[in-house]
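The protein record passed on for reference:
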Amino acid sequence: MNTNVKIFFSFILGAGAGVAYGILTAPRSGKNTRKKIAKDVDAARKSIEKTTSKKFDETKELIRSNADKQIEKGKKALDKIKESIPSPN
């Protein structure tokens, strides 16, 4: 697993643990605490979805760019091979 990915997931895990600790130790009623937890979980979910979507799009573009480069290299190599084959005349 990539070091950046490990750092990202460690950060998310640590932030989640900190939020959970803060919520559970805050002086609120159970009903208010549950509402706060639901709200925070929803916000975290949206943030993770946004980040994941962004990273997915970046990765997809990187793959597309690399594929285009490889296709171009393949075409050039094929052209060189065609040029090196003697004409049948």
